[in-house]
Amino acid sequence: MSCSRPVHVDNPHLNTLKDDVLYHFGLGTGTHDLPAMFGDVKFVCVGGSPTRMKAFIEYIAGVLGMEDPKSEYPNICAGTDRYVMYKIGPVLSVNHGMGVSSIAIMLHELIKLLHHARCTDVTVIRIGTSGGIGLEPGTVVVTKQPLDDTFQPRYAQVILGKTVVRNTDLDQSLAAELLQCSKELNQFQTVIGNTMCTLDFYEGQARLDGAFCHYTEKDKQDYLSKVKDAEICNIEMESTVFAAMCKMSGLRAAVVCVTLLDRLKGDQLTSSHECLVSYGERPQILVGYYIKKQLKAKATAK
What we know:
By secondary structure, this protein is an alpha/beta fold. 33% of the residues lie in helices and 24% in strands.
């Protein structure tokens, strides 16, 4: 019988706090019974948009047969306007905003929440959208390795004036399990590949349509060719810090993003709204299938 995996925090100063206030969630150890509220959580899905994450909890409730026609799925973080959080059964859904800074703040408080709630064996999956590299729009990418914008597998952060570099490895067995689920679903193309994480949507991703641009179309294409040579399948803005923080806390983690366009062919989203909405639902369909499969396997094992 395998040992359970607790959620690890590495901060001796937390032991000196009478109450730990999770400010951006509007929660805290002194004001909420976190073990009672969250102790049964086994799966956490995070994504940028608050609307997407509410849609996800409604979707997963239906997949798991836990939907309540009268339920409004209340926002647990209603006391703040920074993030939203929803829960159904063992599944938690949280939004993280855009970019490494926003998701890092959310992850600090999420990891502490799971730790204080004494959760074990938690899997965290980021679902979202991205720009593809040589892939048809609508392709789902399960990240093999998050890379920074110089194609290195690292997350660099300045702490006390010094640059600290952290590992961005993800759980490869989880990625393989998600790919297998996609094959079983057989609804859309899914690949495993590297993901590049940038600090910006425009210049940082070699777009030509921002407010400022001081490079040519050829410069852009030369750079994107190097991106493709690095076996990068898609570009987004959160995967490096997500991978680094999940690894440090012992959380099994994956990134599942759909591509909305092929960046080798353009910068702007030209697909119809209906098409983009359909693409955007693909990560939640895959992850919903995975969660249901895992819960069924655990029920059978009992």
